[in-house]
Structures are given as C-alpha cells and as structure tokens.
Design goal:
Blueprint (H helix, E strand, L loop, with lengths): L2 H8 L3 H15 L4 E11 L28 H13 L4 E6 L9 H14 L4 E5 L5 H10 L3 E3 L9 H4 L5 H13 L3 E3 L2 E3 L5 H12 L7 E6 L16 H14 L4 E4 L8 H10 L1 E5 L12 H11 L2 E2 L34
Parallel strand pairs: 1-2, 1-9, 1-10, 2-3, 3-4, 4-5, 6-7, 7-8, 8-9
The chain binds S-adenosylmethionine (SAM), 6-(5-methyl-2-OXO-imidazolidin-4-yl)-hexanoic acid and iron/sulfur cluster (SF4).
Iron/sulfur cluster binds next to loops.
C-alpha cells in the first residue's frame, strides 16, 4: 500500500481506524485464533553489529554475556517444552550478523532445524543475513519462516544501525522468498522515529511480493547500556494504530503483537487484538528481555474468548479422556477436551 494511502487511513479518528481494521480482519480471518510462538535465543550476545536498540551487540555494556551456540539436545528439550505448553511455532534467534554455508555453526543450526521440524511445529529462525545458498539449505532442513525485520523506515535506519544497511536487509528477504520460505518481517516502535517513518516502514513491508506471512510489531524494550536505553515508552494507542494499519495493508498476514507486552495493560492488549493482532510471543522470556508469564497470557486469552491456534503442521487426532483443559483451547498436541495426546 502506498504511503499516501497509509497516511490517509492512519489519520482517521481512532475508532474509525479500528472499525476499518476489524472489518478487514473478520473478512480474512474467520476464527478467533491467536498463534502462540515461543522464542529461544540459541546464540546469545557478542554480536558484531551496532543496532542501537539491542542488548546483544558486543559494542554496548548491557550486561548480556556472549555465549556459544546452544547444544542441540538442549534446544530440542526447550522446543518440546514449548509444544507441551501449547506453542505451535518455535522461533530460534542468533546474535549473528549472518550465516555462511560450509561453516561449522551453520551445519549445527541445520541439524537443530531438522530435529525441531520433526516435532511437527512451525519452525522459524532469525540468524541475520542470508545468501541464496544458505536460504535454500534452511528451507531444505525444514524452516517454515524466516524472521528478518526492517525495523524502521529506510530513511531512519542509518540513525539506528551503521554496520549494515537497509538494502542488506532487503537482499536477505529476497533470498528467503526465492528459497520458498515464508517471510516474517516487521519492526520496532520507539526508536525515536516519526509517524512518517512508521508508515514508510509499513509501505515497504506491505509492498513485498509475495506479501509477508507474518508482521511482528515490537515496541522498544529499552535495554540498559544501549544508546536507546532512555527512550520513552511507546503510547499504547500508537501501538494499536500500527497494528490496525498492518492488518489493513496486509490482510492475510499474522500480525504479531511482539516485544513490549510487559509494558501494556491487559486492556491495551485487548485493543490490539481487536485491531487485528492474531499472534504473540509466548513464554516468560523473549530473547534476553522479559515477556508476560504464560499463565497470564492464557488467562487473558480466556477472558477475551480468544483461542490458541492449532499448529499448521499437525492434524487433529482423536482422543478419549475429557480431562484437565490447559485452556483456552490449547489445541495443538491436544484433543478437543484438552487431554494431551500420546
Ligand atoms: N541478529 C538477527 C537480526 O538482527 O536479524 C536476529 C536477532 S535480532 C535480536 C531480531 C529482532 O529483535 C530485531 O530485528 C528487532 O526487531 C528485535 N529486537 C531486538 N532488540 C529489541 C529491543 N530491545 N526491543 C524490541 N525489539 C528488539
Ligand atoms: C521479533 O520481531 N521480535 C523478537 C523476534 N522477532 C526474534 C525478538 C524481540 C527481542 C526483544 C529484545 C530481547 O529479548 O533482547
Ligand atoms: Fe546483532 Fe541482530 Fe542484535 Fe543487530 S539486532 S546487534 S544483528 S543480534
């Protein structure tokens, strides 16, 4: 959608914007499901890049220590646990500028991906820059979606990152699309950007061909020691406005209410779901920052009558014991009564 159209819609009175987003949401999404994605940082800290919001850059004294790539068995245990808690998508992040074919660490990641894919979860990875060869290898190993955010407008990007360019980000996204993986691409609010930057970011994302499968809308988690540690909290209505605009401009995408939910009230999150958010990161931790507790999230979904989405990779199975609903409607790996399948 072109900037001029985005601007017109964005400037509608708040309730008109929400109503428009809601109508489009209901046309494209017939159920009230919310996708639960669990994040795991498989390689934390020590990153060469200087993204000024990120606690994992080696350039800032954020208190996040550089770690080695996690052992495969530990990752699989965490993926199994996520699945047993009702998550249907497992997203593994690495604090790297990018990956190269033929390196030991890339081979290790491919091994991990193969085993997570065998658990019948959607597999998402975010490893930084990819060439065509690396993208094809990840697809072959079983990655369903690749997360690579553009984070802000092309104009504001150089104020936030100097070690790679906006064009570099787009190149990776092209490689992901060419390899046949879904693209998960969004951004962060609260980086000192203007409304125009936010709309320009959505203009780029909504013009992708094919459109992104998911759009994470993060609010900055100000990380101690980073250049943006003192940035102001993003206004909840601004988050809802951007969610609404993402829904309107890319109707078929999962719009993910991402980092920053710990700073939103339940009521503000409800507004975001109404505006078209239908996915969240689920689990007490994002990569290094805090996220709401799973019990609170399940309770919130329950209070709103929203359902946890069943995995795209698992078909429903018959069951016999109507016991202990984990609820609300944690369908994946469970029968209709909430009993875990064997
Ligand atoms: N290194 C890879 C990359 O840059 O694409 C993958 C990991 S990186 C941490 C993934 C995304 O997390 C970033 O693009 C950004 O959107 C988000 N992110 C990182 N730090 C954040 C923060 N403090 N607050 C909100 N979002 C953040
Ligand atoms: C995305 O858009 N948000 C997630 C995921 N993709 C990788 C990451 C949020 C990170 C928040 C800061 C942290 O945990 O360090
Ligand atoms: Fe590194 Fe990614 Fe953090 Fe940038 S956002 S410093 S590339 S981990």
């Amino acid at each position: 959608m072109l900037y001029s159209d985005l601007e017109k819609i964005y400037n509608l009175p708040f309730f008109e914007l929400l109503q428009k987003a809601r109508r489009i949401h209901e046309e494209h999404w017939t159920d009230s499901s919310v996708q639960l994605c669990t994040l795991l940082s498989i390689k934390t800290g020590g990153c060469s890049e200087d993204c000024s919001y990120c606690a994992q850059s080696a350039r800032y004294s954020s208190g996040v220590a550089a770690e080695r790539l996690m052992e495969k068995n530990e990752v699989i245990d965490r993926a199994r646990a996520a699945k047993s808690h009702g998550s249907t998508r497992f997203c593994m992040g690495a604090a790297w500028r990018g990956v190269r074919s033929g390196t030991k660490r890339f081979e290790s990641v491919l091994e991990i991906v193969r085993e997570v894919a065998a658990l019948n979860m959607e597999v998402c990875v975010t490893l930084g820059e990819l060439g065509a060869e690396e993208a094809a290898a990840l697809k072959e190993a079983g990655v369903t979606a690749y997360n690579h955010n553009i984070d802000t407008s092309p104009e504001h990007y150089p104020n936030i990152v100097s070690t790679h360019t906006f064009q570099d980000r787009l190149k990776t996204i092209r490689n992901v699309q060419d390899a046949g993986m879904s693209v998960c691409c969004g951004g962060i609010l609260g980086l000192g950007e203007t409304v125009k930057d936010r709309l320009k970011m959505l203009e780029v994302i909504s013009e992708f061909n094919p459109p992104p499968e998911s759009i994470p809308i993060n609010s900055l988690m100000p990380m101690p020691g980073t250049p943006l540690s003192d940035n102001k909290t993003v206004d909840a209505f601004d988050v809802a406005r951007l969610i609404a605009l993402a829904r309107i401009s890319v109707p078929a995408a999962r719009v993910r209410l991402s980092a920053g939910r710990t700073r939103l009230s339940d009521e503000a999150q409800a507004l975001c779901f109404f505006a078209g958010a239908n996915s969240i990161f689920y689990g007490d931790k994002l990569l290094t920052a805090a996220n709401p507790a799973v019990e609170n999230d399940l309770a919130l979904l329950g209070r709103l009558g929203l359902e946890a989405k069943a995995s795209d990779r698992t078909a429903p199975a018959p069951c016999s014991s109507p016991e202990r609903p984990l609820s609300p409607a944690v369908e994946q790996d469970q029968c209709a009564h909430g009993a875990a399948r064997s």
